[in-house]
Amino acid sequence: MIRFSLRRILIFPFVLLLANFIGFAFAFYVAPVVATSNPYAGGNFTLPPLFPEYLDYLSKFAQMDFGNIYNGEPVQVTIFRLGVNSLGLAAIALTSSILLGIFLGRLAVRRDRLKVSAWLTILATMGLASPGFYIAMLLITVFLLLTIYGPGVLIPFQGFGWDAHLVLPSLVLMAQPTVKIAQVTGSALVDELQKPYVKAGISLGHTFSAMKNRFAFRSVAVPVLQAIAYSARLMVAELIIIERLFNWHGLGRFTGMVLDPTSGFSRAAMMTPPTMAALLTTLVLVFLFIDFAAALIARAVDPRLRADMHTEIGEAAG
């Protein structure tokens, strides 16, 4: 386990440095093009060489100087301030998705017929076929109509706040992950419950519910963890769109504003190389952490993966 962790962690600096350089180079070449679209901007832009500029940017890391965003605020301060808002929203949505998805997946497996119930198949098909931004626009439209023609504001459909403002963005972020986790849980349980040890356990007096929830579910923890990791990555990616639609003041909304600088003349200065480099590095770091945590937990709960890893190490040593 320690060797596996070290191998994964040693890759992190190289991947993060590459992501940082790509983000810096993207903004370095694109920002001047965006600035020329501003009718109030004049003159020609002459770009200096990329690599000297990037090396100068890296040389300031020792002083904890990662650059500033368009308004002069340090990049790390902005990312931390907005990242907390995004992390809180994603954590609430992901936790709810895990609990509800596992519950639905277990509920969809019955003893009388060892296959996933039709209602979960229909629910998963509809959920996985509905993009988050589509669900978000539907909800915003419904609550906007209720506000105009109905009883008034029932739930805030835009804005930031750790109150009722959480409801709609959390529901949208939960939609696909919940049905994905439920689908994987149900399908994996159906396959596991058809194995001989389950039939032997039932014949020895264990109830079907006990075999399903205590023994079979433990054996399918790895695919469920993979579904959870997929859901977490999906949520992080969707934050860029969902936070902008609901005007949630988080890192996703800020990233969307940086990537869409033509939405206002003042936005032309938002895509600075340090800003884009820090945003892409943070995004890649989150993805790396999700994959690393999922792989680590999977090996901790499933001894078969640890046995396979020890076998590979033994073969390599031999």
Folded structure, characterized:
The chain has helices spanning 2-36, 50-59, 75-107, 118-128, 132-149, 167-193, 196-203, 208-219, 221-245, 251-259, 273-301, 303-317. By secondary structure, it is mainly alpha-helical. Helix 5 (132-149) packs across helix 6 (167-193) and helix 11 (273-301) packs across helix 12.
Provide a short characterization of the protein structure.
By secondary structure, the chain is an all-alpha fold. It has helices spanning 2-36, 50-59, 75-107, 118-128, 132-149, 167-193, 196-203, 208-219, 221-245, 251-259, 273-301, 303-317. It has a single domain (2-37, 65-317), classed as MetI-like (MetI-like fold).
SSE layout:
Elements: H1 2-36, H2 50-59, H3 75-107, H4 118-128, H5 132-149, H6 167-193, H7 196-203, H8 208-219, H9 221-245, H10 251-259, H11 273-301, H12 303-317
Core attributes:
single chain; 318 residues; mainly alpha; MetI-like fold; 12 helices; flat; disordered C terminus
For the CA atoms, what is the radius of gyration?
24 Å
Q: CATH superfamily, please?
A: MetI-like
Continuous helix count = 12
| H/E element order | HHHHHHHHHHHH
What portion of the residues fall into strands of 2 or more residues? under 5%
